From TrEMBL:
Species of origin: Methanosphaera cuniculi
Superkingdom: Archaea
Name assigned to this protein: MBL fold metallo-hydrolase
CDD domains xref list: flavodiiron_proteins_MBL-fold (cd07709)
An annotated Gene Ontology molecular function: electron transfer activity
UniProtKB keywords: Hydrolase
Length: 412
């Protein structure tokens, strides 16, 4: 398959894959993504491949097409990979590794000591490969190119690492700082900022939120060793390359520390016969009456990976649930479990929480969920239940309920 290899610099090429068709990954929705891999040439034309692509024939063929184009662009007749850097075990970054090793069996594979057994477990054909396991501060030195490695354990797997190309100031960060975007363009400034940052926020909320304490420690380490001032570019394993690294580093610091730039609440609700939905709209009016923004997520239409993106930048989360068999409507239970697993209380902000809903012959659904949200780390400030269809007095009470929460949000 023929494919062009866009240049990052004279010696660095993008040789990854554009996956136009991916609509779900890691449990969240997307509209395509990229599996970024990079080919770096030393001054004497030694070739270093950093990461690779998903293990499907069309993706691997696209990668080989770009690699061939990069060698042709440099006027080299023979394609030869001399070194392989594997920043992460997961298959969307390692799926072509067996084929690469078969083509270039003498190329050593640089990885963390945790990654080596993981790679062999995934790909038994690598048992005879030459692995060079590295830790923070170790390096690969070539003619005019020095690659320094940094352990990035649990960002977002135990095997993860960063690779820093000293001469160019490029941090190859694998899954950190990524976005699930599929674009012809390769750089941050080539995409509307709102689209770029929205994708980065969704990536963080769904993949990195529970790892926030480790992320903050790693960012502090980057500062302490003096690396931050040296980073000119960040090349993640998904989405756009950051030419303004402090834009995404600053955003990560805000998300990690629970910074909400506006007063905002997220309302998540489902309904059986419109009653809980009616309540949600009335509560939203009360919240907005206090000058607080609301993000409304109706579970007949919205899905959890978009919802948690808004939770990340909200000071309060309200969940509206019809009672079903003395418990909660299944769609709400699914979202609650997902939010619980992401551990938003690790981001430095103890978010307010509240529940509401209608019931018929028996209540308890919202109250049950209220207790579960408290267990998940929310600062619960109320629960409201209405029997059957809310009347005008009930809706007025819903408005007041929202207004009280709006006031509490303004006090945070």
């Amino acid at each position: 398959m023929k494919a062009k290899a866009p240049k990052l610099t004279d010696d660095i090429y993008f040789v990854g894959t554009l996956d136009w068709d991916r609509r779900e990954y890691h449990g969240y929705t997307l509209n395509g993504t990229s599996y970024n891999a990079f080919l770096v040439f030393s001054d004497d034309n030694k070739a270093v491949l950093i990461d690779n692509v998903y293990p499907e024939k069309m993706y691997i063929a696209q990668m080989w097409g770009r690699i061939q184009d990069a060698f042709e662009d440099r006027g080299l007749d023979e394609v030869k990979i001399d070194y392989i850097i594997q920043n992460h075990v997961e298959k969307d970054h390692s799926g072509a590794l067996t084929e690469i090793h078969q083509k270039f069996p003498d190329a050593p594979i640089y990885s963390t000591d945790v990654a080596k057994p993981g790679l062999i477990k995934h790909y038994p054909e690598l048992a005879d490969a030459t692995f060079i396991t590295v830790a923070t501060g170790d390096s690969l030195e070539l003619e005019g190119k020095t690659f320094t490695f940094m352990d990035a354990k649990m960002l977002h797997w135990p095997d993860s690492m960063f690779t820093f190309l000293n001469e160019e100031g490029i941090l190859f960060s694998n899954d950190a700082f990524g976005q699930h975007l599929c674009k012809r363009e390769r750089y941050d400034y080539e995409v509307p900022e709102s689209e770029l940052m929205d994708a980065a926020q969704k990536f963080y909320a769904n993949l990195l939120t529970p790892l926030t304490p480790l992320l903050k420690n790693k960012l502090n380490e980057v500062v302490e060793i003096g690396l931050l001032d040296k980073i000119k570019t960040i090349a993640p394993s998904h989405g756009q390359v950051w030419t303004d690294p402090m834009k995404i580093i600053g955003a990560y610091l805000d998300w990690a520390n629970g910074v909400c730039k506006v007063d905002q609440a997220t309302l998540i609700y489902d309904t059986m016969h419109f009653s809980t939905e009616y309540m949600a709209h009335a509560i939203a009016e009360g919240i907005m009456s206090k000058g607080v923004d609301v993000k409304m997520h109706f579970l007949k239409e919205d899905e959890r990976s978009e919802i948690v993106k808004d939770v990340l930048e909200s000071k309060a989360v309200l969940m509206g649930v019809p009672t079903l068999f003395n418990k909660v409507f299944p769609s709400i239970a699914d979202v609650y479990l997902y939010i619980d697993e992401l551990q938003f209380d690790r981001t430095g902000l103890k978010r307010l929480g509240a529940t509401f809903g209608s019931y018929g012959w028996s209540g308890n659904g919202p109250a049950w969920l209220n207790g579960k949200m408290e267990e998940a780390g929310f600062d619960m400030v109320g629960n409201m239940e209405v029997n059957y269809v809310p009347d005008d007095d009930d809706l007025a009470a819903c408005f007041d309920f929202g207004a009280e929460i709006g006031e509490k949000i303004k006090e945070l």
